[in-house]
Every structure is written in C-alpha cells, then in structure tokens.
Amino acid sequence: MLAVDSKIRQIWNLVICLLSVSSVLLIPLSLVYHIMPPAVALAFSLVLSAAYLADIGLEFNTSYRLVGKVVAGRLAVSRHYLRQGFLPDLIAAFPWYFVVLAGLVPPSSYFTLLALIPLIKLVKANRLLYSMAEEKVNPAILRLVLVVFWILIADHLISCAWIIISGNPDGLAPFDRYVRALYWATTTITTIGYGDITPDGTTQTLFVILIEFFGAAMYGLVIGNIAGLIANIDVAKTQYKEKLEKVNAFFKFKSIPLEVKRKIDDYYAYLWETRRGYNELAILEDLPSALKETVALSLNQDIIAKVPIFAAADPNLIRDIIVKLQPAVFTPGDYVMRAGEYGDEMYFISQGSVDVLSADEATKYNTLAAGSFFGEMALLLSTTRTATVRANEYCDLYVLDKATFEAVAGRYPGFQGSIKKMAEERRLAIEAAKRRQEIEAAKKK
C-alpha cells in the first residue's frame, strides 16, 4: 500500500496534473485546427487514457487520511475511492479522444465533442495542485492563482468553441484566428464587449447570449472572491494593523505623551518583526498536553541550545520546564527587576542583552547575553533581589516562576545543584564588586 504523502505519489500527482493541463490545451485546439499530426494525436490519446487508468490503479493502492489518521486497509481504501472519485476517473480514462480520431463517430458533428470528456480530470488536478502547494504557499495566494488559472482555461475553451461556431470568414491564419477569438472571449466574459466582433445568425447569437450570462455571473463571483482573497493574503498583518490603530486611538483619547506612544509603536513593530503578530501562548493553549509539549520543544530549540545548564540536562527535565516557560519581551531601558524587590521568577535570555547593576545603578557588575540566566538567587534563598537588571536592547526572555522551579528542583536535584553553584559564583562576584566600589569611594574621600 502506497503512503498518501509518499514521494512517489507526489511525483505521480504532478504527472497527472501536467497531463490534465496539456489535454485541456491541446485537445480543443486539435478539434479546431488539427495542430497535431494524426499519429501524434493518436499516441497522445492512448498515453492519456493509459495514464488515467494507471491513476485509478494507484488510487486503489494508496492510503488516505481520515480525521487525522492514515487509513491503509485495502478494503477501506477501495470503499473510500469508489465513493469519492472512482466514477469521474473511470469516465475520464475511457479513450474518447481516440474514438474521435479513429473515425468511430461521424466527423464534423457534435459527436466530436466526446473528445472533451477527459477534461473532467482537470477538476481532480485542481484538487491535487492545491493539496501539493497548500503547505508551501500562502492559502489565499494559492486560491487566487487557481481562480486566475480557471479563468484562463474558460477563456481558452470559449475561444475554441467560438472558432468552431463562427468559422473563419476573414480567412485568417490559424494563430491569428485563435488570437482574435481569444480577444472576443476575453472581452465578452469580462463584460467589456467592445462590439467590434458581432454574432451572425441564430446559433452564434444564442452562443453569445449564453457566454454573456456566464461572463456576468463569473465577473461578480471572481471580483468578490479576489477582493476577499486579497484581504486575507496576510491576515496576521491585517490584524496587527487593526490592533495598532486601536491602541493609537486609545492613547490619543487618553492624551498619552508622544514619547511613550513612540515607545509602544516600536514595541509592536518589534513584535511584528520577530513574531509576525502571533501569540504563541494563545496558539498552544488549545492543544492537548502531549502535542503542546512537542510544539513547545520545537519552538524553543534556540533557548535549549543556548543555555549551558540545559545542554547536558535530563531530557525529561527539559520537557518539564519548556512547557512552563513564559515568553516576555523587554524594550531598551526597561527594568527586568530591581534590587531590593521580592523575586518569585527567574529569567533565561533567548535574544538580546541586559546589564546587571548595583542598587543605585552606579556600578555595572556584568552584562549578560543570549544563553544566560538570572534572578535565580531570590528563588533559591527566598530573599529580595540583590541587583538591578536593565535591558540594553530589545530582549526576548523566558520566565520560570517559583512554583515550577521548586517542583523541578525537587524532582531533579542535579539541576538545582547546577543553579546553586552558578548562583554562588555570582553572589561572590557581586560582593567583590561591592567591596571594590566601597574601597574606591573611601579613597575619593
């Protein structure tokens, strides 16, 4: 049984799409102008039918997805295909074009239109194209491209039909006649209709009326769809702009100082640049715990790789911590914590840098960059903060609260030991810096 998302299946789907598009371009033109030599046309018709029959065989031997799981049982697969798409595929696989080419139906009659029946395969090709591209292309852009594709296909088919109905009264060369028919079809279905090409006789008039009705319906449908698709091409950016407009309107109403407003604008701009306006906590909230853990591990690979204490940590410890980390953003000059305040959180730096300062901010003890952590001393010793920490630039931090820290420390004593060792080293470094500061101050006196 072939996997539904296997490489072989994807390549075959692409082949079917190419054959379907080729048939919709070549068969109508062949009926009009016999653009392919008879032997080539016969070979093309047989290859087309053989490929479509092979596609039916593959469908009976390819698993399918149902409610998030892959179904691979042969009986279930067969029942599913017989209900979902077997009949159209079987009709398309019959060698209709061969029947017409072989003269098994009267030439120059409506029976020649039987050659167009395989074109129904294009509906399946449309579905296959969408499924192959939806993970790589913005869905709104993909739908827009497919709408344009179907308009062009309709334009082509109507052009060929108009050539058959109206003939070639001006004696134009085949290419020139097709271009002129394409021009007429385009102006008619887009409801422009300059009137320079008019119907002659009842058959042509009825055909034009039919196409005008089709064009009017399609015009409204397409314009409405395109407007909606364009509006949804970048939903996140649209929502971001709407939120920013609301925030700015509120601050204007409340007469917030311009300096504060600019800082808020910069903050939202940073969120857009780094997160595209998405709130990862809100996205993860609805996921089941196991899946949430998997996604959290994937999203936080950077912080796991950057923080040294995680490098050799127990994988179970990482899983326990990673789902509890809360992302936080601090703008340049923001105080992450202040000396003397009670602390119930520690921080891991994912991006950016912070300065560790004395209580009066006169002395800089250290500068911490991505991969560092701080705030652990207040958690370990249940004391107030021993230093002030201020962001140098935009900082992406992850926050670990006291309850989670204590739970993890209880289960993994080695982790608590690593944190304690580094905390002690920092405490000694800060005390040494304080002593140096006191000595320098005494000398100045």
Q: What is the first-to-last residue Cα distance?
A: 87 Å
How much is the average pLDDT?
82
The total of helices stands at 19
Low-confidence stretches: none
CATH class of the largest domain: Mainly Beta
What is the tally of beta strands?
A: 10
Radius of gyration: 35 Å
> The biggest beta sheet, please?
4 strands, antiparallel
Write a structural description.
The chain has three domains: 1-133, no CATH class; 235-275; 300-444, Jelly Rolls (Sandwich), CATH 2.60.120. 63% of the residues lie in helices and 10% in strands. It has 19 helices and ten strands. The protein has helices at residues 7-33, 38-59, 74-84, 86-93, 96-101, 121-133, 139-166, 174-189, 202-232, 235-253, 258-275, 280-285, 289-299, 301-306, 308-311, 315-322, 376-381, 402-411, 413-444, and strands at 64-66, 69-71, 326-330, 335-337, 345-351, 354-357, 364-368, 373-374, 388-391, 395-401. The chain has a four-stranded antiparallel β-sheet. A four-stranded antiparallel β-sheet has the order 4-9-6-7, with helices on one face. It has a two-stranded antiparallel sheet with strand order 1-2. Helix 1 (7-33) packs antiparallel against helix 6 (121-133), helix 1 packs parallel to helix 7 (139-166) and helix 2 runs antiparallel to helix 4 (86-93). The longest helix is centred in the C-terminal third of the chain and has 32 residues, at 413-444. The model has no long low-confidence stretch (mean pLDDT 82).
